[in-house]
Amino acid sequence: MSEQWIFLNGEYVTKENAKISVYDHGFLYGDGIFEGIRVYSGNIFRMKEHMARLYDSAKSIMLNIPYTKEEFTDLIVETVERNKFDDAYIRVVVSRGVGDLGLDPYKCPKANVVVIVEPLSIFPKELYETGLEIITVATRRNRPDVLSPKVKSLNYLNNVLVRIEAHLANVSEALMLNDQGYVAEGSADNVFIIKNGCFLTPPGYVGALEGITRNAVIEIAKEQGYEVKEEPFTRHDVYTADEVFLTGTAAEVIAVIKVDGRVIGDGVPGIHTRKLLEKFRERVVAEGVKVYAHKATSQVG
Ligand code: PMP
Q1: Ligand 1: centre distance to CA 187 (Å)
Q2: Do the interacting molecules here have an ipTM over 0.95?
Q3: For an engineered disulfide with 73, which of 221, 278, 296, 299 has Cβ 3.0 to 4.6 Å away?
Q4: What are the pLDDT digits (tens) for 79-137?
Q5: Same domain, 53 and 179
Q6: Which of 209, 218, 247 to mutate to test the pocket of ligand 1 (most atoms within 8 A of CB)?
């Protein structure tokens, strides 16, 4: 593989040289934000939506990103180009930057900005054919009125605890409930259930991140003539659903065939989920910001 180039505060550096101070407040306090974006066949999927979410997260926590959306879009595209990947995952991180050991963000004069591009597949390929076994865990989703899940912050300890519980149970993903017991989301993905041909996914106020894949799937499902509802549901509804699947930039659309030992439907990826995945895969290569013929001003509003 040729050298991997990482964008770090205006420069392109190798992995070994991509280093940040231990006084960075992203490291000390989780004070920062990030995005996970994907390139499919040289197209960056839903770049505009990812940039909108990044800048909304920044606004919410009063973090100054030292680039306009257009400039940052160009920088991300350039980083993808330099790494010469047609299919890859892009990690964008903006931290509060270097300060002193205290919490005070006003002592951090400049954000640290990082863009990493690398190939990725979080679940083995065969799991897209067989589907996942998952569990629900004791760790609850942060209350949205405490730390809004709409802010894609570097504060992922909640989600890390979910992964620890999943690991201990020997499964690769798990669902969190919110403080009222409604199903919220996975550690890094949104959840859908299908009952009698109707798609259900938890609404934002239940405490899930507003996933860009989730929104794309809602769009595609509606185009395919399905009814889609954003409504709270419980574990019982998951156990008794005809189909269950997860969505995320890294996970894409992946079927779930067992939850807490209950077999979902026939115990294989269902017909609607498979259709959705097929349409989603068509969509991701057909649309997006073309890396090699890109003009930010025409793409980002
Ligand atoms: N929920 C959480 C907690 C996540 O980290 C992610 C991944 N970004 C998602 C849902 C899925 O969001 P998206 O489709 O935008 O990747």
Answers
A1: 8
A2: yes
A3: 296
A4: 999 999 889 999 999 999 999 999 999 999 999 999 999 997 667 888 889 999 999 99
A5: no
A6: 209
Catalytic (active site) residue 69? no
The residue among 100, 120, 140 that closes a domain is 120
Say which CATH number the domain at 253 has. 3.20.10.10
State yes or no: pLDDT of 191 exceeds 60: yes
Residue 286 pLDDT class (50, 70, 90 cuts): confident
187 with 40, same domain: the answer is: no
Is the pLDDT higher at 162 or at 84? 162
Q: Which listed residue (19, 107, 110, 152) is catalytic?
A: 152
Distance CA 138, CA 17 (A): 39
Is 284 touching ligand 1 by the criterion CB < 6 Å?
Answer: no
Asked if residue 297 has pLDDT above 60, the reply is no
The Cα–Cα gap between 232 and 80 comes to: 38
Residue type, 94: V
Strands (E), 98-242: 112-118, 132-140, 173-177, 183-186, 190-195, 198-201, 227-230
DSSP-derived pairing of the beta strands 132-140 and 173-177: parallel
At 87, list the tokens.
């299919």
Q: Total structural domains in the chain? A: 2
For residue 153, pLDDT beyond 50: yes
Ligand 1 lined by 83 (C-beta under 6 Å): no
